[in-house]
Every structure is written in structure tokens, then in C-alpha cells.
């Protein structure tokens, strides 16, 4: 879909890839960007770029009341980027189960909740696009990454399922698989798993620009950085090689 003049919603827009996405959509001529954040007070630096076109939006994707209210406050959305996500390191058989629940509840169920609220909004506006920010981590279960790879694999399956449901409603659905991106989340991961530090990292700005390119190109799968493209190619050729490489990080 064309981003020029569109009204966009980005979840988790106060930092990291989400904040870079707000900038990228503005640069491509979006008419307005609703910047979703659990605490809109954290959006000052983001909205300060262009207070006319960036609207702060209170949105906690794990809170049904917050999601319903956001859909009423932002009734003009056509592209939606489900970017908000969390990570908690640990081994599944030993870590605090509440951390696993938070990761699944946010990355999978929270994204589904936003989709259910906003699909009718996008449809009423004549159709548009949804981009779900997954991860190359969806392709293998790295032992020390707790519930994160499973949450992203589940999000990939959700993305494939709703693509078929939403196509007749005029909504394109994109699966985004970034590799390591310089953000707070990556720092949390590499602190606990130094082997991750050997992987090349992309900047949030480059990844955001590639996501907007993929939405405009109508790509089902978007691999927005060089490492992601390498993993994507390998996964198509030899999924076991990807498992050895990512799960083998330990
Ligand atoms: N960085 C990477 O290497 C990488 C690689 C592949 C995929 N990804 C994915 O990219 C997305 C963005 O990650 P990032 O690297 O930018 O991480 P980040 O810097 O940790 O930012 C995460 C964002 O999600 C928001 N968020 C968390 N829980 C939320 C909730 N319940 N409701 C609404 N917003 C919530 C956070 O808001 P608060 O400030 O309120 O916590 C923050 O804005 C995530 O889905 C992540 O899994 C990241």
C-alpha cells in the first residue's frame, strides 16, 4: 500500500524500532502517525519531531480496556505496525513462569488483541496493511531465550492465519523478521548471552526504513537487514542449519 498521506499506528513507539518507525513513516509522507505507548509521558522526544503529525496514543497491548479505547481514539488508521514486544532471558524449565507468561501474553496475545480491535477500523477506512514485527528468533528455539522464540513462532503462525482472513477485507498482512537491531532489547539479550555480540547489528533507523519499503512493496515476508536476509535464505534452504546456528547460541 502507499504510505504517502496514510494515517499510521505504531505500537511501542516510544523507543527502539517503534520510535524509528514513526520517523520513517513521517519521512515517507504519512499524513499522521499515532504513536502508541503504555505511558504516553514517555513519547515527548518522539512527538517533538513533528507535533502536528504525531499523535500520542495511550496503548498497553496487554490491557483489553486500553486497546478498545485506542481503537476509538484512532479511528482513521490504515497501516498498523504491531511492533510492541518484550523479552525475558532464562531457560524454560527453570525460569520464573510469570516471565514466560508475560512474553506470550504481550508478543502473541497482545498483538492478537490489537489486531482484533483494529482490523474493523482499517476495513472501515477502505483497507490497508498490518505489519507484525516478529524476529528471526522465530525460526529456532534458543535455550536461554525463555519464551521469546516460541512467542515469535506463534506470532508467525498468527500472521499467516490472519493474512488469509484479512485479504478479502482489503488488508495486506506482512511478517517482519529482523535480525539483531541496536536497541534496549538487544542490550538485554547480549548482556545475558555474550555470543549474540558476534552477530552483526542493524540500526533501528535502517530496519524501520526497510519495513516501510516492504509494506509499500506488498511483501508477505520482510527481512529488513543483512543478517535477517542471510538467515531467511538459509532457512529456506536448510532449516536444520538455522536451528544449529540460533539454538546453538545456548
Ligand atoms: N532489537 C532486536 O534485536 C529485535 C530483533 C528482532 C525483533 N525485535 C522485535 O522488535 C520489536 C521492537 O523491539 P525493540 O528492539 O525496539 O525493543 P525495545 O527497545 O525494548 O522496545 C520495546 C517496545 O515495546 C513496548 N512495549 C512492551 N510491552 C508493551 C505493552 N504491553 N504494550 C505496549 N507497548 C509495549 C515498550 O514500551 P515501554 O517503554 O513501555 O516498555 C517499547 O516501546 C519487538 O517486537 C521485538 O521483539 C527486536
Automatic annotation (TrEMBL):
<dbReference type="InterPro" id="IPR036291">
    <property type="entry name" value="NAD(P)-bd_dom_sf"/>
</dbReference>
<dbReference type="Pfam" id="PF00106">
    <property type="entry name" value="adh_short"/>
</dbReference>
<keyword id="KW-0560">Oxidoreductase</keyword>
<feature type="domain" description="Ketoreductase">
    <location>
        <begin position="6"/>
        <end position="174"/>
    </location>
</feature>
<dbReference type="InterPro" id="IPR020904">
    <property type="entry name" value="Sc_DH/Rdtase_CS"/>
</dbReference>
<dbReference type="InterPro" id="IPR057326">
    <property type="entry name" value="KR_dom"/>
</dbReference>
<protein>
    <recommendedName>
        <fullName>Ketoreductase domain-containing protein</fullName>
    </recommendedName>
</protein>
<comment type="similarity">
    <text>Belongs to the short-chain dehydrogenases/reductases (SDR) family.</text>
</comment>
<dbReference type="GO" id="GO:0016491">
    <property type="term" value="F:oxidoreductase activity"/>
</dbReference>
<dbReference type="InterPro" id="IPR002347">
    <property type="entry name" value="SDR_fam"/>
</dbReference>
Amino acid at each position: 500500500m502507499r504510505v504517502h498521506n496514510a494515517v499510521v499506528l505504531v505500537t511501542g513507539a516510544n523507543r527502539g524500532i517503534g520510535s524509528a518507525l514513526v520517523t520513517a513513516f513521517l519521512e515517507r509522507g504519512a499524513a499522521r502517525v499515532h504513536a502508541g505507548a503504555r505511558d504516553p509521558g514517555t513519547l515527548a522526544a518522539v512527538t517533538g519531531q513533528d507535533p502536528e503529525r504525531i499523535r500520542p496514543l495511550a496503548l498497553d497491548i496487554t490491557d483489553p480496556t486500553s486497546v478498545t479505547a485506542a481503537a476509538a481514539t484512532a479511528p482513521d488508521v490504515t497501516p498498523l505496525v504491531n511492533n510492541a514486544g518484550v523479552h525475558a532471558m532464562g531457560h524454560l524449565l527453570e525460569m520464573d513462569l510469570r516471565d514466560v507468561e508475560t512474553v506470550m501474553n504481550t508478543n502473541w496475545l497482545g498483538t492478537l488483541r490489537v489486531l482484533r480491535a483494529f482490523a474493523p477500523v482499517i476495513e472501515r477506512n477502505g483497507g490497508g496493511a498490518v505489519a507484525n514485527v516478529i524476529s528471526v528468533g522465530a525460526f529456532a528455539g534458543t535455550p536461554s531465550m525463555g519464551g521469546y522464540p516460541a512467542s515469535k513462532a506463534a506470532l508467525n503462525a498468527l500472521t499467516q492465519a490472519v493474512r488469509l482472513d484479512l485479504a478479502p477485507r482489503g488488508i495486506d498482512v506482512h511478517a517482519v523478521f529482523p535480525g539483531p537491531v541496536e536497541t534496549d532489547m538487544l542490550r538485554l539479550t547480549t548482556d545475558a548471552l555474550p555470543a549474540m555480540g558476534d552477530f552483526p547489528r542493524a540500526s533501528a533507523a535502517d530496519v524501520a526504513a526497510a519495513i516501510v519499503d516492504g509494506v509499500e512493496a506488498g511483501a508477505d515476508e520482510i527481512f529488513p537487514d543483512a543478517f535477517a536476509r542471510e538467515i531467511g535464505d538459509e532457512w529456506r534452504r536448510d532449516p536444520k542449519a538455522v536451528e544449529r546456528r540460533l539454538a546453538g547460541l545456548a
